[in-house]
Amino acid sequence: MLEHCRQARFVWNLAVEQQQLWQPGRRAPGYHEQSAQLTEVRAEYDWLRAGSQTVQQQALRDFAQAMRHFFAGTHRRPSWRKAGVHEGFRQVALKPRHIEKVNRRYGRVWVPKVGWVRFRSTRLLPAGVKSYRITRDRAGRWHVAFARIPNPIPGPADGSVVGIDRGVAVSAALSTGELLHIPGLTGGERIRLRRLQQRLARAKRGSNRRQRTRLAIAKTKAREADRRRDWVEKTTTDLSQRFDTIRVEQLNVRAMMRSARGTLDQPGVRVAQKRGLNRAISRQAWGHLVGRLNQKAAGRIEPVTAAYTSQRCSVCGHIAPENRKSQAVFACVACKAGPCNADVARNIAAGRAVTAQGDLAVRRSVNCEPQFSSPAP
User: Fold this and answer.
1) How far apart are CA 129 and CA 149, in angstroms?
2) Which of 30, 177, 233, 347 is 20 to 30 A from residue 79's alpha carbon, by CA?
3) Given 62, 87, 224, 343, which residue is catalytic?
4) Which residues contact 142 (CB under 8 A, 6 or more apart)?
5) How many of the other CB atoms lie within 10 Å of CB of 113?
6) pLDDT of 252-291, one tens digit each?
């Protein structure tokens, strides 16, 4: 299976190279032309001919689909695949019996040139599935994923609305007052990870000790990633079942995580601090959380502009930088509301949208007129 991964990656990178050599006025080769070229390459190289042609052709199909998504504007341009990082291949079941359920706990799939491969089921095997992807992570674990579009989770149909504020100190703060924290490494695991990274820096390149240390680091980080994915799946399922409408801040996470290194002519400032912030944002899984919500609660997600949400009072609507006393404390200087947890106070993405008409009644009851220090978004 490692050979399948290596050959699929080789074919994919050849297709990427052809696409990068494209110039205006020339037509880039499509799947059928590349498939004919693959036949010629297989006849020339024995190591490629020894592999499965269906696996290699599927890599070309995946690349063609990736280019269609890029031209449609929904995905980024396909890039290079690296050994040790992108280890995997996709296969379409040639016969329905090539995907079987052995018992309640195990199943098996037919892999070309390998035979039957047994796997442990983490959920029910979907009916009518025809394709699957086998991958190997950096911790050396093999996974098989079956292609199937799941059905959206129905809401409670009671008109309930919730706002979600994503942060670094608090992973997700709900407008209901709930503060959700994503699980990470324990204190002992963080100490062990730091020691392993120090050992890796001292190890000689190409040595067995360096390889064992890298594997130990990968296993520790894989454990953290598993906890993060598990938390995202459980949290998004719970929110999709409890609320009809889910409002989230509209954040460009990719732009927020850009490096501050700059260039040689114009080097960046506070690069180490920005790198730490980028890692903290990555550990909170901002994009993964909203992505899974869009899939599970399709049509019930409403993005809200994030401007001034950390400075606006959800009671009177007053916007001022002085309202935010600190990272964890919010207190309105106009209506004296608070102090309260600043992460909950920032959930005005839901509060403003939910009480678009109710804010006026609240203002009259507290006899407080909003004084906007800057234009409301």
Assistant:
1) 10
2) 233
3) 343
4) 1, 134, 135, 136
5) 12
6) 888 888 888 888 888 888 889 988 999 999 999 999 999 9
Helix axes 2-20, 53-72, angle to 10 degrees: 40
The per-residue pLDDT for 65 is 95
Tell me how many helices (H) and strands (E) the chain has. Answer: 12, 13
Q: Is the peptide bond before 303 cis (omega within 30 degrees of 0)?
A: no
Out of 62, 165, 224, 359, pick the active-site residue.
Answer: 165
The answer to whether 318 and 370 are in contact (CB under 8 A) is: yes
Q: Widest CA span of the chain, in angstroms?
A: 83
Q: Distance between CA 134 and CA 116 in Å, rounded?
A: 13
* pTM tops 0.85: no
Of 324, 343, 344, 368, give the one whose Cα is nearest residue 332: 324
pLDDT of res. 145: 92
Does 224 qualify as catalytic in the annotation? no
Helix, strand, or coil (residue 111): strand
Query: Is residue 46 annotated as a catalytic residue, yes or no?
Result: no
List, in sequence order, every beta strand (DSSP E) within the chain. Answer: 87-92, 99-101, 106-111, 115-120, 131-136, 142-146, 161-166, 172-174, 179-180, 245-250, 301-305, 329-330, 340-341
62, 87, 224, 249: the catalytic one is 249
Give residue 373's pLDDT band: very low, low, confident or very high (50, 70, 90): very low
The answer to whether residue 230 is catalytic is no
